[in-house]
Predict the structure.
Amino acid sequence: MPSDLHDALYQAYLDELRETHPKVRIIKKGDSPFCRFIDKVLKVVTFGGQRRFLDSFTTTFGNRIYVPDCWWMFTPGDRYCTLRHELVHVEQFKRYTWPGMILLYIFLPLPAGFAGGRAYLEWEAYRESLVATWQVHGELEAKSPWLKKRIVGHFTGPEYGWMWVKGSSISTRYDKAIERLEASPPPPLPEPLALPTGEPADLFLGDPPVDGEAIA
């Protein structure tokens, strides 16, 4: 898709989410005491390996998608692809419920090294990331070595608590996903209507929670 339409694409996706997922909220992590607490915990349990939780990673809890405070610096196309990834997690929370997600993501079968539950949940989302990248940025971007290295690194490194140390198996999954996309490419995205001149796309969705508000 031409890059000059990415702003309109992102706006159209927010409009779609308002209709299909009215409970979904996109919130800055800096506005969330809960995310600031999680950041402190992650720095401890990863021995300082995950120091970018607040400023580089997007995280979903239930219907709330928490984005870095620098979300506005992401390109509209990258924001769109990120939300496609995160919406997979929104659907997982619906499917498995909060207790099920906590059990799968943190404890089954191990909290680190071979955290199969966490790896399964994240691979579902990263598979969608590949499809979205192919549709927005093109085949070459989806097949780029740097993207493969980044995704494999998320599974094997401290960002996700060393969830799957056997990087070769993640690399194989990535290659097979690309092969499936080559054999059956995803359909082109509908071309959105261009935004009126001078009108920026929204960055967030819904009102931020107040301190102490329960996560739903």
Observations:
- The helical segments are 6-20, 33-45, 53-56, 76-107, 116-137, 139-142, 145-156, 167-183.
